[in-house]
Amino acid sequence: MPGMVGRTRRTILKTAAAALAAPTAFPAIGRAQGSWPAKPIRCIVPLPPGGGTDTIGRRAMQRLSEALGVPVVVENRAGAGGTIGSDVVAKAEPDGYTIGIATASSHSAAPVFRKDLPYDPVKSFTAITMLGTTPYILIGGPAAGATDLPGFIAAAKAKRGKVNCASVGVSTLGYLLTKQFELLAGIEMVDVPYKGSALAYPDLMSGTVAVMLDNPSGSAGLVREGRLTGFAVTRPSPVLPNVPTFESLGVKGFDAVFWYGVVGPAGLPAEIADRIQKALADGFLTDRGRETLRVMDVEPVMSTPTVFAAAMAKQTQELRALADRLGIKPTE
Fold this sequence. Notes:
Elements: H1 2-34, E1 41-45, H2 52-68, E2 72-76, H3 83-90, E3 98-103, H4 104-113, E4 125-135, E5 137-140, H5 149-158, E6 163-167, H6 173-185, E7 189-193, H7 197-206, E8 211-214, H8 216-224, E9 229-233, E10 257-265, H9 270-284, H10 287-294, E11 299-300, H11 305-326
Parallel strand pairs: 1-2, 1-3, 6-7, 6-8
Antiparallel strand pairs: 3-10, 4-10, 4-11, 5-8, 5-9
Helix pairs in contact: 2-8, 2-9, 4-11, 6-11
């Protein structure tokens, strides 16, 4: 009994101490949220500078900085198909001062490919907004051996298993869709992974690799300049109107799109997430704002956090089903 009384007393004292501390702790959190943002915000872009994700991320963060009145510093943390940078966001304090650019690869496709993913694409984050969607484009250089899609498919069939195809990693949506394209076209290529699409462009132009399934936001300029060939797109592209769709060239059902979004760590206060979403929506859902994204072949979305979270979860289920059909299993 004396031991039990002692333990009970200690428990009561600890509870009382916690109760006394609580009134000072919780108002401090409230004050922090009320004064947010009071210092620069860090935005993690999980791919290298120069590619589509980096370009879209910087454009969005410039608009967010203007709306909030504080600097938003972009930090590129590339590697593993965007999962390294995304993990940095997942492990950050949910105080509104670290956010990140999410993509269909880092959050919808990655769990399909990796059992050892260091984060849960839904539970480890607070969804803020889907910025927009963009099509895929098959681009190529001299090693492709053709200037149109039927010609490339014929050339690839003649060199089955010998055509090098660039990707930004085997845990990405682009990789999964490349495998789907190979199945639909009856070809087989060799994957050559890069840390980001911008790093693959020189090798495409030099002939080190033949083709890549990319997003126009990064490579449209190279196609317009004639430095790379645009073989086909998954949906009509306003920035590359002369590039036909896969559907029109006989590759039926190959019409997937890629999305860019903004996320924060799990536990980010809803008030902060809503404020970021509103600032971006106000900036990009105007005629002028839409045009700043459409010139990069990105169709603005700016969904609410709830809608964005549901869309990510739904796409992950769909991609798991696609991977099963292609016989692709997650690796350790």
